[in-house]
Fold this sequence. Notes:
Structural class: alpha+beta
Mean pLDDT: 73
Amino acid sequence: GADGNAVVLDGPDSAAAAPAPAPAAAAAPPIPKKVQRTALNFKSDVRKSKSAESHPCGILHATRSTSSRDEHTFAWVADYGSGALPTLAHLERYGYDRDTAEFVPYSGKAEWISRYPHAYPYVECTAAGHVGGYPHWSHHCRDASEIPRDVAEGAASGLLLGGGAGLAGDGGLATGTLAGRQRGSGPQGA
């Protein structure tokens, strides 16, 4: 037809115009495949030419399994030689498996956080081998009641550096203050 939207039929009713067929519906986007397991890969930003084997700092990635799920934690290790074993020992206290832990050499803590914000290292080990922080403890806690009981008890008993002093440059680890609020206050008080 003249308007481009009608089709002229041949036959006895050739003068009648029928509407153009509707365009085919757009194919629905594919839905994700159902799987029993998925995985995330964390990649070093240290070039092979700089030898990731000799790069001293990076992330220690550890897992623990419960009856219902696998849990992951990440620890920044300033020096692999002096910090890997103390960091593993610290994470073992919380049920993380030493045998499946992996070290990913990385150029810096800020670079790791920028690339993998979902894998924030709440545990940190200094170049001197001092470990602070707790797996899954967030610095966004408003008060001690938001910290898991075992973490608050650990802080109160002095498991952190210097009885809860936190690490220099740790971005606000204030466990000594939170542990102080925790002691003797409320239903979880020590």
